[in-house]
Design a protein that fits this description.
alpha+beta; two-stranded antiparallel sheet; 1 helix; 18% helix; elongated
Length: 127
């Protein structure tokens, strides 16, 4: 199925058994910070994705952002959130001591074979 929307998500931090995720709806220029994603566990067989909510009193919460879950935008948000947490779980399995905030999906390349003297652009090795 073709993607209808350009949606990205990244894990901010782990909170108990869930993960706080920032969702970027790039087509709309909109960002949702504070979505909670819970992986499957012995009690719940499916992934759970909750949008941020604010306490409304007497144990009730009001969702700050709501989606019609029958439309394709929700499916894109849901899939992006799950992929972000799956990637985070992969990182945790590889190196549990690495902090989430220091992770990058892109590797920085710093040239080390350049002299300290004056240079021009032809001296810089672009890949």
């Amino acid at each position: 199925m073709n993607r209808l929307y350009n949606v990205e998500a990244s894990v901010h931090k782990q909170i108990n058994t869930g993960y706080r995720v920032k969702v970027s709806l790039l087509d709309f220029g909109m960002y949702i910070n504070g979505a909670m994603v819970f992986p499957p566990n012995p009690e719940h067989a499916d992934w759970a994705v909750y949008m941020p909510a604010q306490r409304a009193g007497r144990g009730k919460y009001a969702y700050i952002v709501e989606f019609n879950k029958k439309l394709p935008l929700w499916n894109s948000v849901y899939d992006a959130c799950i992929k972000a947490v799956e990637l985070e779980l992969t990182f945790q399995a590889a190196d549990p001591n690495m902090a989430t905030s220091t992770r990058s999906f892109y590797q920085d390349i710093a040239p080390t074979d350049i002299d300290d003297g004056p240079i021009d652009l032809s001296d810089i090795p672009f890949d």
